[in-house]
Amino acid sequence: MSKRIVIDPITRIEGHLRIEVDIKNGKIKDAFSSGTMVRLIEEILKGRDPRDAWAFVGRVCGVCTSTHSLTSVRAVEDALDIVIPPNAELVRNIMHCSLYMHDHVVHFYHLHAMDWVDVVNALKADPKKTSELAQSISNWPKSSPGYFSDIQKRISKFVASGQLGIFANGYWGHPAYKLPAEVNLIGLAHYLEALEWQKEIVKVHAIFGGKNPHPNYLVGGMACAIGIDDVSGINAERLAMVARLLVEGKNFIEQVYIPDLMTIASYYKDWGAIGGGIGNYMAYGDLPTNGIRDINSMKFPSGAILNKDISKVYDVDLRHDEEVQEFITHSWYDYAGGDDIGLHPWKGETKMNYTGPKPPFEHLDMDNKYSYLKTPRWKGNAMEVGPLARVLVGYARGREEYKAVVDKALKDLNVPVTALFSTLGRTAARGLESVLASQWAQEFYDQLITNIRNGDTRMADITKFERETWPKQAVGVGFSEAPRGALAHWINIEDHKIANYQLVVPTTWNASPRDSKGQLSAYESSLIDTPVANETQPLEILRTIHSFDPCMACAVHLYDEKGDAIGRVSVLGD
Ligand code: NFE
Ligand code: MG
User: 555 C-alpha vs ligand 2 centroid, how far in Å?
Assistant: First the structure.
């Protein structure tokens, strides 16, 4: 007999995600992922000026903030054939690298670490031993016995009062927690430090984009004037601050995030064989160093890998109408041409039609439609996108810098390369690419300073700013590597206005329902065969789902008026 577990909502993510799984003999036999909110940004954009789209889509999400704006200006620039100046590309890259640094650290400590680190157990740690351990894995200065015992005192007060605050409702004491108390205490201390740290790195966005979240972008370049002695522009003082923030960010990643990640991973090597899922990976590429059209110039190369075979990387063409398609067979939408066809986003439709049960309900109807996410496919294949996909594509493309960080991590953990195709691999890849992004940020910054020294301060090409210069009809695609994976926006412009706009988002790739052929997407597939020790505390499900870093706000672009079940885990017999 199997049992159905419902977790709705999954917490420590962005937005509303519901997971239903069937469990038999302590293992997951079937899994369903459902996005229970929808936002219809695509409809909001229709009829608007394409140059304004970045400001609307930027509000899709405050977590991967800036990514949608970046992707949008790229889509419009593609449609109108605009080439941005090198400095604008460098500033976009520096901002994008700062985003990876911020988003990945916040994900690791604040959204994911508590799946592995038992906060309450940290109170049992010996501060002196914790200090010795901390100093043996890193030269990060905050590591004295007094520092760790102060952290314990702060948390003891929470626990004694019965109010765990930000740590409430964890599955503390669950048998799947394996870390020694001292490692738990280090994780807890750095959770608190990362909260402080994260508000600093985002200042890079504030300097170049005016604010964070939702910094300003500009079709044709960036809206920040360089003037070394200018009081209100990007002056010498602000550039020096960017330099300092980038170095501090890199230090935190190298001295705190990575040592913690590797230490925690060393106790959970069994998760190198759990949670792998479909084994197809895709990246669109990002961080151009010679213009967006030179796909080979990108720090994140593009490509697709099928069936875990890293000896082959396939090219991806976002313009080809049979490569990327979205299906709605199991999604609460209608297509004019029927529910089993796939549509390329330039021909995409966004007509909502909720046909699920009326709340309150126990189950969604999995045989029919069960999510507000559409189901994207690449040449008919379900694909995983995200840090693991990027790292694998970089590795498979033979890029030396990827090989260096990946091979070192595999050696340090003493695990085979196949351990990458797993929950642990996904979480590790996010850390490894954070190291790369923090190094690349330095390169981009140095190049920007060199350009300025050489007298090039151009930041935007506005020759096509006037609508009269545009063709009557144009289509474009803008792509990026958002922190959670491959992202693209497809735009159709008619009579200077947006006629159609489609976003196909990383979490849509990963968290979507089945397609018309019944193929599972990444979340669903990765849960199959996962052991679950305690059905009322499904910590193992959280580990794998969190390893993707879900963002449902991005994935479904109004809340259900009654879709407000809070923090519910239900176990239902069959
Ligand atoms: Ni809201 Fe997003 C990222 C985008 S979705 S977080 O990263 O695009 O997966
Ligand atoms: Mg969409």
Answer: 7
